Amino acid sequence: MKRYDICQTGKTGHKLNYLFEENVVVSLKRFTAVCSEARISFAYLHIGFQLANPNTHVYSRQVIPFVAKLSGADGLNLDCKMLFDSKKYVLSTETFTTEHLFQYPGKYVVYAKCDILGGSDSFKTDDNHFYVEDALSASKLQISNQLNTHTYPASTELIFHHKYYFPISYALMLNDVIITELQTAQTFDKKKVSSNETAKFEMNATIQRLVGPGIHNVTLLLQNNVSSVTFLTPITFNEEIKNLKVMTKQYVGLQPNSFIISATVSQGAPVNLSINIKSTQTRLTVYKTSKFCSRDCHSMVVEATLSRAGIYEVEATARNKISLMTSNTTFEALPQIFDVYITSRGFNFETRREVFVFIRGDVGKYEMNLTIGENAAKNSTLTISKSEYEHEGLPNLPFDAKPYKLIKDESIFHEARQVTVLIRNDKQSFRFVRNVPKALQTSCLESVRIRDGKVGGGLDVPLKVVEELVLSVDLNFICVRELFSVDYKWRAYRVTSKINIPKTGDEVQLNASSVEPELLIKADALLPGLYVIKVYANITSDDYHMSLAKGDDFTLVEIPARRLNFLIKGGNVVEAGINTTVLKFESSIDFTKHEGNIKRDWFCAVTQEDLPMTKEIGKIQRKGSCFNWKTLWVSGNDTLEISRNKLIPSEQYYVRLIISGAHYDATFADQKIIIKSKPAPVVILRCWSNCEKLFSSLKPIILQLECDDCIRHSWILSLKSGQQMSLCKNQRFCKLNKSILDKVKTSSNVTGTGYNIDGDKASATLILAPLLPPSGGICTVHPRSGIAYVTKFNVSCHGYAQGRVPLKYKFFAVEKDQNNLLQHGCDPNLNDVTFPSKSSFSDVMIWVEICGPGQACTVKNLSVSLTKNHHDNTDVISDLFNAISSQNLQQTAQLMLPMSSANILERFQINKVYERVAKYPIKTLMSVKQLADVVRHLVDGFGVINDYHVRLIAKIMDRIEHTVHNPSTSEDDDVIRSIAASCIFVTSHLMQFSDDISFKIKESSRMTRLGKLLMASLIPGEDTMTFGTKSVKGKFLKLNNDVINPLNDSSSFRLPNIQTLNNEVINVEVFTYDSSINFNTRTHKVDQVTSVSMTKGWQDEIPINRNEAKNQTIGFPLPAQPGKGNITMRVESECDVAGCHSKAAGWALFDWMLYKRDGNDLFLTIHVENMDQKIRNCTMSLQTTDQGSFKLKKEFHEKELLYTWSISERSLPHRQVELNLTVFVDLGAGFYRIGSLINVTITSFILNCLHWEDRMRDWGRALAR
């Protein structure tokens, strides 16, 4: 601390200027006569002087802007300069901007200085250190390297040359292996400018053995803090070739078919393999080819072709820079037979069956023998004259038949027969055998067809499985058998080409649904490739368990390379306050659910341009790193946490997650983090629904702002056009419905912002990009009108082409609030469907949903006009029993819709329908939806006839619940809600039929579970959802601490005391059961039953425990009872200069008598309702009219439309008395004219509230209110 003495000169009026650069003490040191009379005035100026430039690392030979800011120097006469090395700039204003060019790289000190004119004092800014670096580019560096050919594994050097620039850091990588890193000198050498620089890397034996011999990719990364350059070059490690052998078959085919020549070496790489084929007769070369192997050359394969028959010699030559070897062998070329497929068609007993023999071979003539069973062989000459054939009327085939010649024959099969085909050329014989089953006497099966949407079937174009594909099978019958079963077997064969016949060795394992009529193929369940899918159907009789018919069908699917779509949780852009100490990152999907070795790599950079496109580069690049001079790569863990104190100072950071793995295409997701200059709440944007990178407009996007410190929230949707929409005012949750998403035509942003109590805020932004639905097509229905139950309608869609990716079609029949799913899959046609009619003339709406990948859908609405038929069509009964016997859920759904309204089944037939439907296998949500529709039609149309039906349907409901809660596919939430609605309808019917109270209580629990499915897309704070059937009414909502008194609806129930902590979500379900569902037990009669379920959590819901439930005040609607009346209250207004105060009062009389309690509490419950909304509070009092001492009073301090006062019987007189109820209401500051009246309704109940006790299997008092 410095000290300054004043008044030393003894002069008066002396003024001193001092520049204080630190804390000072001002004192009077000498007290002279003059000085003692001096008046001391002390003033100071606070001078600020700053030099600003956003970057500490800048480019050389480029103009760099600088800004100097001077403040608080008013009244001072200053001479200011900015100093750059030896150059000075005069500062003429308080804010001065200048530019400077650093000619050479290096470390520079820049500062600004001011001298106070008229004195010797001066002051300056802090020293600003700038690191000037050369901008690197491939054109400037002119990188070259010496010939990179070396002998393996002898040590050598890898040498690179380039122009001198400073500074440069080197990183070298061989293939994907990081080898070494080098750093150049720390000081700039001006003498080296324009000269060449050399970088040397030692390639010792240890390094070479990491990659092995052969040609390898070298990546040299040259980088500094302002730029980076990647240089790619090959390097060859030559290993001597040893033990070359060449092999091929003894006999090979002719053009256009090729044959394989294989060459093996025991060691050596790289290898240039030359194949030279000569005729042994003319010694002329007839074919030459070559193949280069860069590494792993122990086995090499070459394809060759020959146009003429003959004996040939093949010579193989293998060479590299340090060795040469040859090997030869001989073979003969002549027409070959490559494959034969034998099948038959025709199933009727004593009818000649067609035998089909498909032959693929070289053009030429052969001898052929065809033997069927014990019959004599048929000898013939086989002539193959061309490479492709056109065929018509073929049976189902597992390959493309164009390259095959077809030979047909006929025979009668009383039993299984063996078909043998023997084909000879001049030197060889080819034998093929297949067992053909016997004809079946009682067969009704006409065909088996996979519903794949292909016109006429065939394997010419494969179906590309992007996400998942559901294949179902149709069995077409020509007669009726009510008692039969079908065994299904799906098989998959991986083939290299669609012309290849699948063999047993090609079969791959399918999932558990491979023995059911529906097959679910997931893209990540099979390796990428081409697959022949076969379904085999075996029909057996139920009575004798004998085989009646067999059939099969095939389709071709393609599994592309897998690709994972994901985001980084929290949003694409996230703001963090300066108070944030740790940044956390996590992927939006759980990779443990995906097969294969999934690898995660996290990278962090200061600019998005520096984020790596490949994980290999990111592991060696340092330029732009968030961690000063460390690599961009941060971690390979599932999640990432970064401490702020480890990051270099910056206003923003970018994080990239790259995902890769076996059979997966590498893909990435980014997140931008903006660091605010002041404290801010921690805000996380969470997506709950429709969260893919590309969203579907058919289902809502549900977002949530997670922020413990936030008291207010806002949401903004920013469209590409510049339009902004305010959404979800002050809500933590925000639902973007279809009406909003339809406005998002291109990439747009939705931003959620949270505000804390201090007014600080932070935002998170999610980029929305819509999926483009199929377009350009049309859907039609024919005919447009017809007769109910009779006319067969056909719906077809065409023109929605989308390459090889199959579109998914869903056909719905819409009635009231139910969408009946008639068919789903790849088939664009719905054929031969009939519809019911509720009146003489009616229209039926048909809804067609055409969906591409990712649930991007187009919806087409059609309609048909119906005339009611007074004569039911009983022909559909045979179709129904064929459908349920073959477990064809789609056909059952189509037939059950009209039949449930026609009521044409006999009782024994209804029993069979229930039994068969109960056994339907279900795997996907679409099949669950159809089964729920079918059961709803059964219950609604045919009724629940007996307890046997109840047990069957209950089992179906169990299976539906299990599948919905554990879905194998990802479908729209609307499907789940539709399933739940159908199941609630069915369950309420079961409860009406059964007299078993335990069964009813059990099914009421099912209703609660189904209610949770209805709430799938409900968000906290949203309006109450209602749902009901004839016998049950349900209300559902989600609550959080932003919601107060959410259910003050007198027609339903009240939950006024709900409280939540820490943004906790409360899920509330209330079902009120009609009196038609009798819940009476032997000991108790109940007039009304209401079930309440309260759980915590958004997705993983957990029940609220008993202690928490006790803290809730819950009220329910009550059945109509005597004791209802009106009170007319006269209003009085008292006014003075300060304002008015209004109130009203009224009274009513009613009789009270003691009721028998049966061990339980009784309650007198009084409802006061229909009050004016201006009422502020209410007071009720109750007393006897006989001047007794009994008196009760209840005050209500909330503004309500319904006031409920429940009084325990124990608190009331134990005798019959007349009670006087007085109601007093406070109307607030409003003025009412003299004579104004208010009418209220009084309803009194004698209520005994009971709670179901599972242990007692009866009603009890516990928890009852």
Automatic annotation (TrEMBL):
Keywords: Membrane, Repeat, Transmembrane, Transmembrane helix. It comes from the Eukaryota. Pfam families: REJ (PF02010). It is found in: Membrane. Its main location: membrane. Residues 472-897 form the PKD/REJ-like domain. This is PKD/REJ-like domain-containing protein. It comes from Clavelina lepadiformis (Light-bulb sea squirt).
